[in-house]
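ping. complex inputs:
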Amino acid sequence: MRTNFPLKNRSNKTHNKLILIVVVIFIGGAIFFSLTGGTFIRILAPVWSGETAVGRGLNNLYLFLRSKDSLIKENQILKTKVNEDAVLLVSTQVVANNQNNILKDLGRTGTKGGIIAAVLVHPPETPYDTLIIDVGKNEGISLGQVVALTTDSTTSIQGPKIGIISEVYATNSKVKLYSASGDKTNAVLERNSVPVILLGRGGGNFEFTLPREVNISIGDKILSSDISHNLVGIVRDIEMQATDSFKKILVVSAANVYTTGYVTVLK
Amino acid sequence: MNKRLISTIVIFLVLISLPYWVYIPALVLAIIFFPFYWEGIFLAFLIDILYGDIPHPTISLIFPFAFYISLFVLLLIPLRERIRLND
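pong. complex structure:
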């Protein structure tokens, strides 16, 4: 006789046994992976480096196979953009030099120099806002060092600061981005120098709240609160209801964490 | 090699090379498909230790993703029994 009613429940003993096994696996795994975490990163670092090289090769192959016309068009667009950016860079360099001179006169020197590192893993491969870079204790990296986007070493302009070193191994380190979910970062609005606390939302995004009377617009810049006033993010959206006393500001990071290839670990 | 072992190896390879929106759903599907997929808990630990911000080298039980995957595995134990059909 066919039936389709469920079996009688198994005895609770089997379920309890499985629950106990899961708990033991969790605790055992936590202890094991806490002690050996660096080993896995050290083992996989060459694999990630190889992936980056393969990715670049495939990209070159793709460019090689693209039609000539589309390449010519893209080349012209990029040439125009490079010329525009060159002009902007010169004026920005003048401003940066003036700022450095003023700081020097006041007995403060801007942070210069650091160790350039290749990014092995970045979002979206990591579900958390972290980067894995190819420098570690052997290169003099230590916990808490600030990490910025790499800029041209011939200019005095520092790229935006994007995070801090959160874990250090022998030849690799992990960078926790400022935009990591739940992390708070002090910053300042460029428009009216209002101090704000950016709350990380992950994926290179931040949010903060402002009283509704404070002026702010989409496209406004958010700067770091330290003396260097580096660009941290740009306002992308403002959420406010008519009856709210505060408005929620959504900010996107100035650095594109999804395509970051090199970073500088500042001294 | 059985399907379970092959799936674990495939998910591990995907974990080290593809974005999270590929390997996390793959892991969840494997936990649903295979009965008592305890290997998924180890893969979740791997995700936390490789890509998360876990204090090191102190022993810590702060592995958020591994914790939620363990809960999911536990949840599926009685659920699989209840939705099973018998001839």
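Residues 13-65 of chain A form one domain.
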